[in-house]
Hints:
Rossmann fold; NADP; disordered C terminus; 253 residues; alpha/beta; 8 helices
Amino acid sequence: MPLQFQDKVVLITGGGSGIGCATAIKLSNLGATLALCDINFDNLEATAKLCASTLCHLDDVDVGSTQEVSKFVETVVSKFGAIHHVFNCAGVNPTSYPLETTTDEYWDKLVNTNLKGIYNVTRAVIPHLKSGASFVNVSSISGLRASAQQAIYCATKYGVIGFSKCMALELGPKGIRTNIVAPGYIDTPTNAGIVKGGEAVTRMINGNALGRLGTPEDVADVVAFLFSEESRYMNGSVVEIDGGIKMSSTTSG
């Protein structure tokens, strides 16, 4: 039976580009009502045009801001009456720095978005969820494997997994599931390797058994499955979406 999301409201952070945008399009095609946020409103509007067959609410939100997140969630519930699924996708990709040259500003930027952002959204949404709801949170292969000169990014992505597994334990008795996706080398505009280009892209392509970069759609398909009833006994799972990663120091995204 094909996945169906009619009468389901799905909240997606980071919906303006990459994996968040692809997931919005996927769920729109499956009938979901969407609540999308991003720090770039123009990008959100572009996503909404690609989801023209469904009802969307758009808002520019810094997920690291408790106040902005709370206002967004309250607006979504007021407008649609419920939230059924949450895709915590907003994140900042890494820039490689030796630890001794890492700045407080860089730490704050990554931690506030990649980790505190999930905390803010989760805390704001929980009071509005009922049994059958679910979360999917975005970690990374860098949440499972360390990378030199990416200590701060790895810390946030390892943190996402730990936080999400605690969510699964705490919310599971209420019938609310939490799962995690850990993408590998995905072809998105903000992927550090894509930005570098050239040999960095070649290393990523050669860095997994399938010999290609992943696409945002590859991740979106897994997210839709994790929201569906077909994954009803998955809770606290980490799903690696990496094409069969090899042991290497290639930059992840």
